[in-house]
Design brief:
Structural class: alpha+beta
Distance between the termini: 109 Å
Order of helices and strands: HHEEEEEEHHEEEEEHEEEEEEEEEEEE
Helix content: 25-40%
Strand content: 25-35%
Low-confidence stretches: 10-50
Number of helices: 5
Largest sheet: 6 strands, antiparallel, barrel
Radius of gyration: 50 Å
Shape: rod-shaped
């Protein structure tokens, strides 16, 4: 009896477990069916273009013939600048001008102590007076000897000696005259005068200093001819032959001065790899003073029309420069090859492949997928150059 009850209990437990497993399987089956149903519903829903289109910003192509410009910073310098120095040595009594003073041709700018020069001149004048007195005596003796020779009172040899003494006296007198002139010039050299109109740019000696002949005292720059000096990178050397140059003061844009090439240094500066260029200023006015900073601009007309685009609009993946052109309808883009005419900062000047008024992607060209549609979110103004 007890065994029968045990078998019944075991059967009941097995039946309950089976019921539970059947219920769980039904639940899993129902969930899978719901998932398949939802997947089928989504698969049948259409995908709208607005959800997959790439947002882009575009720019309108405008062809023009701009001037390709290159700018450099220069300084106004005189074309002629000379160091003035004494032609004799001595003690500098005073310097009469300072930096910034304007001088005229012949104006005194410095003086040396003239005491020794005065003594030299007095000595030379005394020697000249003695030589002239000796010359007068010798010539009188030669004339008397000539008369005596004619009367037969002296021999020809005696007359020749008198004539020789007179000739020597004439040579000594001429030498003394030249010595006197040199002494007079040396006294005149005690005063240093400006050789031309100009402005003092440097002071190189002070009063009380003993200076040697040829030692610079001041520098004077002529202001009738002015130059602009600037450093030109070696890779832009050709611009000197291809473009026209103008200059303007850095703080004034209204006036431009024409420039003409004067000279270029033959060697590149080792540290900066630049040439030193000097250009003559045409029609300079009083505003263009020495030492002013100027902006030098080279402008050359571009032979073919170009369009300006941001650099981000140009794609170059190894097969040449190109842009993405927006097709009619504004939903697709087409790759169009272009030629880079010039690069100006963040702007690229391009040629070819496009027409005036075409719209091109102006930002993120390297991220565009041509297989996907695009959606214009902004039309930008033309790039500035």
């Amino acid at each position: 009896m007890a065994g029968t009850r045990s078998r019944v209990r075991t059967w009941l437990i097995a039946a309950a477990c089976g019921t539970i497993m059947l219920a769980g399987g039904a639940a899993y089956l129902q969930r899978d069916l719901i998932s398949l149903s939802l997947a089928g519903e989504h698969a049948e829903d259409p995908i709208t273009p607005a959800e997959t289109a790439q947002p882009v910003r575009v720019s309108r192509i405008t062809w023009s013939r701009p001037a390709a410009e290159a700018t450099f910073t220069g300084v106004v310098r005189p074309h002629h600048e000379a160091d003035l120095s004494f032609r004799a040595s001595g003690k500098l009594l005073e310097r009469l001008v300072s930096v910034g003073d304007r001088v005229t041709a012949g104006q005194e700018v410095a003086r040396l102590d003239p005491a020794d020069a005065h003594l030299d001149l007095e000595s030379a004048e005394a020697d000249l007076a003695a030589a002239r007195a000796e010359l007068a005596r010798a010539e009188a003796e030669a004339a008397r000897s000539q008369r005596l020779l004619a009367a037969g009172h002296v021999s020809p040899a005696a007359h020749e000696r008198a004539a020789t003494v007179a000739a020597e006296a004439r040579g000594r007198a001429a030498r003394a005259l030249r010595a006197r002139d040199l002494a007079a010039n040396r006294l005149d050299y005690m005063v240093l005068r400006a050789s031309s109109d100009g402005i003092v740019t440097r002071e190189l000696a002070e009063g009380g200093q003993v200076v040697a002949a040829g030692q610079a005292i001041v520098s004077v720059a002529r202001t009738d001819q002015l130059d602009v000096v600037f450093a030109l990178p070696e890779h832009k050397r050709d611009i000197l032959e291809e473009a026209r140059a103008t200059a303007r003061l850095w703080d004034e844009n209204s006036v431009r001065y024409g420039l003409e090439l004067r000279d270029v240094s033959p060697d590149v500066e080792p540290a900066t790899r630049t040439y030193r260029v000097r250009m003559a200023v045409q029609d300079a006015d009083p505003r263009l003073t020495l030492g002013r900073t100027v902006t030098v601009t080279f402008a050359a007309a571009v032979e073919q029309p170009v369009a300006a685009l941001p650099l981000a609009a140009v794609l170059n993946d190894g097969s040449g420069a190109a842009v993405w052109k927006l097709e009619p309808g504004g939903a697709r883009v087409t790759r169009v090859p272009v030629e880079i005419a010039a690069l100006e900062g963040t702007v690229a000047l391009i040629r070819g492949g496009l027409s005036d008024g075409d719209l091109v992607v102006s930002l993120g060209a390297h991220k565009i997928d041509p297989a996907r549609a695009v959606r214009v979110v902004e039309t930008a103004t033309a790039a500035q150059y």
